[in-house]
Amino acid sequence: MLASSQDKDFIQAYTGCELVALDLKRIFLACASNPSEDMEILLKEAKILEQQVLERASSNLRELFPNLQKKWQATAGPGQLHSELLGAAHLCRALVALRKGTEVEQLVGELFVLPELSQTWNGIQDQAGSANPARGADTKLASFLDAILAWLSSTNTALMWLVRSLTAFGESTNANTSRPYLVPSLHLLTNSVLKASLEHIEKHFPNVFSMSSHAEVFVNNYRKCKKFLTDFSNAMPLLERQYFSQNAVGANFMDKFKIQVYFVMRQNEHLRALEVVSSTSTAGDGYADAAAPSAGIPNTNFQATAVLCEQLTVLWDDRYYLDMLFGKGLRLCVEMIGRYSEFMKQLLAVRSKESEVAMHIAADISVVEKFLSANNKFVTTILTKLDPRQSSTTILSTHHESMLAASKANIVTVFNESIVILAKVREQVESTVIAATTTEATTQFNGLRGVAGLYRMQGKPAPTRASPYVEAALRGYHFNNKIFCTTTYYLLTF
Predict the structure, then answer these.
(1) By CB count within 10 A, which of 68, 434, 439, 442 is most buried?
(2) The model's pTM
(3) 3-state helix/strand/coil string of the chain
(4) pLDDT, tens digit, for every residue of 215-246?
């Protein structure tokens, strides 16, 4: 601790610096509100004095901060650092009064934050694993972000001791703002700690933002960084949090993620998977016996049906889904359904005379219609992702509740309208099959009217078993009924 005489001179010098800065601030405000010739002269003199005060305050702070840090380390805690901290507060308030608070924030970042970042980084360098698709996360990045969040609750570092002393961090909303160390309008958490941490991530984890890694790793890295920013913000005092929400530091960092590139790659994968099985020349006769396990569909007649349901489900799977791609995901769903509908329409046009194939087409269309119905799991999953509430205890205003309900209704309408073409194809199949079955059965009854007269004329006894034409007439009915019963049973259990 400084001797008492030194302590007095020490505090007076820095207090005087702050008082002069506050007087200059008043002069600048007065000159701006009441311009005149005399004020112009005063303003010129004030700017000369301002430059002198800024140079003195910056120089003194650059000497004081390192000394304060050394004494902290030497005493392993705040100890007897009241005078040094009080002097630093006076100098910081002087710079803030003269609109140079960023110099303080940059200085804290250089002298306090960067050493902590280097120490944290070195501590996790030997950690095994970088981007491990099996675990689905970049383990070093996760450890680094967790370590930074741990700083916020730490009390044994010079960095957080300084942040807690100069700002309202760690205190309640109604904290005493008249304490001697407090520096209003100083945003150390955002502009010193967070900004330097994010720059460190950009430097040491450049692949985090690109699709050079596995898709699941990219999504988990994005979510981890987003959650980090949310947790960091929630730990801030109210005024600092409000400043952070209006600041672009977090938004600019998240914008570095190649989200659009990621979506285009995923979109191409989904469309390519559907395109491979959507050829009328290779579609088969409807005995593909395909499955869509992710969608919970054990059997479909055509491969394209299974692929459609599988790809739609994977598109919204938590392993690959990102909130900001909600709208693009909906448009991709509609496009995939449209391509599938066109394929089924073309397939029916080519194979319409084959009743068996036509019935298989109708059966698969019914599966897709059921899959896209409002009460099915697929649509309810999408509606759940639209809901902003994180828990059942979150309450929305009446206005927002009505907006949410309207949005959900619109999404259901989108899916209902997307399968209109499929419904028309299915109706066409049903009409075609009924007409074909009727024609086939009718030909067997051409001589039916003369049978009774022939029996009476020849005096034959009444028949005791079915005539040969009955089995042939009912053949189409039995076949269609078999497919219908199988499809109905599946739809009821789907």
Answers:
(1) 68
(2) 0.76
(3) CCCHHHHHHHHHHHHHHHHHHHHHHHHHHHHHHCCCHHHHHHHHHHHHHHHHHHHHHHHHHHHHHHHHHHHHHHHCCCCCCHHHHHHHHHHHHHHHHCCCHHHHHHHHHHHHHHHHHHHHHHHHCCCCCCEECCCCEEHHHHHHHHHHHHHHCCCCCHHHHHHHHHCCCCCCCCCCCCCCCCCCCCCHHHHHHHHHHHHHHHHHCHHHHCCCCCHHHHHHHHHHHHHHHHHHHHCCCHHHHHHHHHCCHHHHHHCCCCHHHHHHHHHHHHHHHHHHCCCCCCCCCCCCCEEEHHHCEEEECCHHHHHHHHHHHHHCCCCCCCHHHHHHHHHHHHHHHHHHHHHHHHHHHHHCCCHHHHHHHHHHHHHHHHHCCCCCHHHHHHHHHHCCCCCCCCCCCHHHHHHHHHHHHHHHHHHHHHCHHHHHHHHHHHHHHHHHHHHHHHHCCCCCHHHHHHHHHHCCCCCCCCCHHHHHHHHHHHHHHHHHHHHHHHHHHC
(4) 888 999 999 999 999 999 998 888 888 899 99
